[in-house]
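Good morning C.,

I know you're traveling, so I'll keep this short. The sequence:
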Amino acid sequence: MPNIATNAILHTKQELNNRHCYQQLVDTFHQNCFNLNQNPYVLSKLQIFVNICEQMRDSSDADIAK
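The tokens, ready to paste straight into the viewer:
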């Protein structure tokens, strides 16, 4: 994700418009990295996934969640 501003991803609260990207990213993370049901704290950090998808909305890297 070379063109994405890290500070914006970590510290903003963008509105979710790119639902397909978000669902793909959450599902992929849940299946391959960490069971999201195991720790409620992780659920509070899912805004980061929203921010990633919204930053990538017009990017050619929009399929990051695959």
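Safe travels,
E.
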